[in-house]
């Protein structure tokens, strides 16, 4: 059995990663990804330069990146929270290795620790490679994966039993649930590519793009994953038609997600109404936020929420796939919440 200490640390890590994911989105959206040109400090400081003399020295060392406090603090606060999360995951892993839980939990803790160490490396490369889109997107996917694994660990410790399905119901839904997980993960990757290439406003109207459903686009340019590392990707280096291709494919991906996940949510209503309603709610909210991003010209609050609700949509689909099966007795005791 997993100790209460591990359960408490797991819950704390889940709360903390909500802030990490939100701060990561906020940092990208306010163009603060290069608010500090070095890593892990900021202009050589543990925090960031505030005094006039410190700012002068910092700008002498980094003449191409003058100090902008509107960008230094989001970047460093995000690093602080991410560092605290790494320490928490390390504490979870050490506690699990010392306890005698199942080998599955031990393996999950080891993967989590390895992943979050990789995340730290990607955080550094985000800065040193000047927001190279491949690295920024991978860093986003790593954060969402970390969130998902922490959630799976929570579920495996009997967390959120009201979201569980009977083993027979899980088997009936399995092919559909796996497909939903794949399309949601791919859509999140597309969203990361949209953000890292500054393509969120490549189409300023909705539902069309420049008044047409077949906009002029350059797919090969937009999805060139082998583009060379440029001097600085802040603001993006991609041409307009490449960004249109990325944006339009993200919209098409949203339709695919709707076509796959909506039927899954409706099927879940038969087996577990709480889980079905949760999936339907986050799916609807995510689609609405995506539309509002376009028609309202990417307001900061809406864009940040779109990122966060995307994470919740992933967690809902992960729950369908990986939550432990409910016991029949538990199911009967909660019958009004299910069938």
Task: Fill in the keyword field for this structure.
2 domains, mainly alpha, 339 residues, flat, 11 helices
Q: Detail the poorly predicted runs.
A: 329-339
Distance between the termini: 31 Å
SSE topology string: HHHHHHHHHHH
- Return Rg in Å: 22 Å
As for the number of domains, it is 2
Beta-strand content bin: under 5%
Strand-pairing-aware structural class: mainly alpha
Shape field:
flat
Helix amount: 55-70%
Largest sheet: none
Average pLDDT across residues? 92
What count of helical segments does DSSP give? 11
Strand count? 0
What does this protein structure show overall?
The protein is an all-alpha fold. It folds into 2 domains: 1-159, no CATH class; 162-339, no CATH class. Helix content is 69%, strand content 0%. It is built from 11 helices and no strands. The chain has helices at residues 4-29, 52-61, 69-98, 103-128, 133-156, 167-196, 219-222, 240-271, 273-295, 300-322, 328-333. Helix 1 (4-29) runs antiparallel to helix 3 (69-98), helix 1 runs antiparallel to helix 5 and helix 6 runs antiparallel to helix 10. The longest helix is centred in the last third of the chain and has 32 residues, at 240-271. It is flat, with a radius of gyration of 22 Å. It starts with a helix and ends in a 6-residue tail after the last helix. The model is unreliable at 329-339 (pLDDT under 50).
What's the structural blueprint in terms of helices and strands?
Blueprint: H1 4-29, H2 52-61, H3 69-98, H4 103-128, H5 133-156, H6 167-196, H7 219-222, H8 240-271, H9 273-295, H10 300-322, H11 328-333
Helix pairs in contact: 1-3, 1-5, 1-10, 3-4, 4-5, 5-6, 5-10, 6-8, 6-10, 8-9, 9-10
């Amino acid at each position: 059995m997993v100790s209460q200490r591990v359960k408490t640390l797991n819950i704390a890590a889940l709360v903390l990663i909500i802030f990490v994911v939100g701060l990561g989105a906020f940092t990208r959206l306010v163009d603060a990804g290069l608010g500090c040109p070095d890593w892990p400090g900021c202009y050589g400081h543990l925090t960031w330069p505030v005094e006039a003399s410190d700012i002068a020295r910092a700008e002498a060392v980094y003449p191409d990146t003058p100090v902008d406090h509107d960008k230094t603090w989001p970047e460093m606060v995000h690093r602080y929270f991410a560092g605290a999360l790494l320490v928490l995951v390390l504490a979870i892993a050490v506690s699990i290795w010392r306890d005698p839980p199942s080998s599955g939990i031990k393996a999950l803790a080891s993967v989590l620790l390895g992943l979050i160490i990789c995340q730290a490396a990607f955080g550094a490369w985000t800065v040193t490679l000047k927001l190279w889109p491949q690295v920024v997107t991978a860093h986003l996917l790593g954060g969402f994966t970390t969130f998902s694994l922490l959630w799976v660990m929570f579920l495996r410790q009997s967390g959120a039993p009201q979201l569980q399905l009977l083993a027979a119901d899980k088997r009936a839904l399995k092919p559909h649930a796996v497909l939903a997980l794949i399309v949601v993960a791919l859509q999140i990757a597309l969203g990361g590519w949209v953000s890292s290439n500054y393509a969120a406003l490549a189409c300023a109207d909705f539902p069309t793009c420049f008044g047409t459903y077949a906009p002029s686009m350059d797919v090969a340019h937009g999805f060139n994953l082998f583009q060379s590392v440029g001097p600085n990707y802040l603001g993006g280096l991609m041409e307009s038609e490449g960004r249109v291709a990325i944006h339009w494919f993200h919209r098409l991906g949203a339709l695919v997600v709707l076509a796959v996940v909506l039927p899954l949510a409706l099927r879940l209503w038969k087996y577990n109404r709480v889980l079905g309603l949760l999936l339907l709610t986050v799916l609807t909210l995510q689609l609405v936020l995506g539309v509002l991003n376009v028609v309202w010209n990417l307001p900061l609050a809406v864009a940040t929420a779109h990122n966060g609700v995307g994470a919740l949509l992933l967690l809902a689909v992960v729950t369908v796939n990986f939550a432990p099966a409910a016991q029949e007795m538990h199911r009967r005791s909660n019958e009004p919440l299910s069938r």
